[in-house]
Structures are given as C-alpha cells and as structure tokens.
C-alpha cells in the first residue's frame, strides 16, 4: 500500500530503540525523510545506520533531551534547515518512574509531567505553525494504556499521560481546518525494554510474563513493529479522515469500553 508520504519529512522522538526506532524504520521505508532523536548519541547513531538500510529518503540523527527547551529548539531548527520544514511529528515520551502512590514524591510527578505533557507541548509549539502554514501535517503521539485505564505501580504514568491525549484531542479540533491531523496511539503490552524491566523486577519473571500473556486475547505480546504500522497509517494520506482519535493497538487487552 502506497501511504503517500514519500518526500515528506518526519521527526520521530525517542527513536534510538523500541517503538521509536520501529516507527523510523517504517516511515523511512515508505520514502519519508526521517529525523531521529534520542538522548544517547552512540545508540542513536547505531539505530540511524540500521534505518538507512531500508530508507528511500534521507535519515538524520540528532541527539536531544526532550526535557530541555533549548534542545527541542535546536532539534527543530536543525531539521528545518536540512529539509525546509517538518510535515510529520511522531512524539514518543520518556518512561516515568515506576511505583505506586507511596513510592513516589512530588518531584517524581513533576519529572513525569515534564517528560510527557511539557515536552509534547514544546514540540507542538515548534512544529504546528509550519504544518498549518503549508496546509498539511500529521502528528501522532504514542502513549500507553494508562490513557484508558489505571496500571498498577505506574501512578506517574496514569497521572500524566491522559494529559497528553487531552492536549492532542483539543488541538485536533483547532487545527484540522488547516490540514493538520492529530491522533494518539494507545499500545497494549509491547515487548520493549520498559516491559522487560518489569520482568526483571518481578520475583518470578516467568510467572510474571505468563500472567501478563494470559490477559491478552490474541495470545501474544505486541512487537514495536505492530505499533509502527499503525503510526505509519495515521501519518499517511490514507488516514485523511481520522482525527482526534485514540487508537488502541493492544491485542484486546484494554478493558475500557
């Protein structure tokens, strides 16, 4: 399927591994010019080299800390200098501290808010004006099932991620007339480093994994590529009537109606 994004420029955050890297691979294979960013330069460069093996356009790697306004400005400035503008933004936030209510403090919550809501706001503030001026844009944020239901021992995520979804829903009504569409991806249990970290913390990792798997109706864990396929579709011309939605890519595990 031709997604109609060849020649478009896509900025993908947190793209040195996992879901972000898979999104970069998918969009690059569709002919988009891809700008990848993450905090760690070495791992980011290695990921960019891998993406270049499937790319049909340009691939650029720019280290950036999304909790830094200066880094975000430098990232967007560099992308715009190289490509003239950003057409697609795939916003993937960092992973906040694990723990229940009694295990976190006020600073933990502030940190989670900074890396999710504030980082998304800054990225949108820098990229939406250009998209609106050019009359075309796609913005997708990858969140977690905390957008739909509470997750044990992830109170910081539950308290902040719905705020990003709310921001996207609000903006989806404000900028759609200018040709810019915003949507949220709500992943289920995806086999990423974050999930593997939960396995490592469990007293019995095999029992932990079996218990998580048992709750997934399709009978398997998701892979980063499952999310990337959905992201690429939402970024495409084929999704021109999808706006302001929160799409669950979860194998049926989320219980919310």
UniProtKB/TrEMBL annotation:
SUPFAM superfamilies: NAD(P)-binding Rossmann-fold domains. Belongs to the short-chain dehydrogenases/reductases (SDR) family. The lineage of its organism: Bacteria, Pseudomonadati, Pseudomonadota, Betaproteobacteria, Burkholderiales. This is 3-oxoacyl-[acyl-carrier protein] reductase. Gene3D superfamilies: NAD(P)-binding Rossmann-like Domain. InterPro entries: NAD(P)-bd_dom_sf (IPR036291), SDR (IPR050259), SDR_fam (IPR002347). It comes from the Bacteria. It comes from Pigmentiphaga kullae. It holds the Pfam family adh_short_C2.
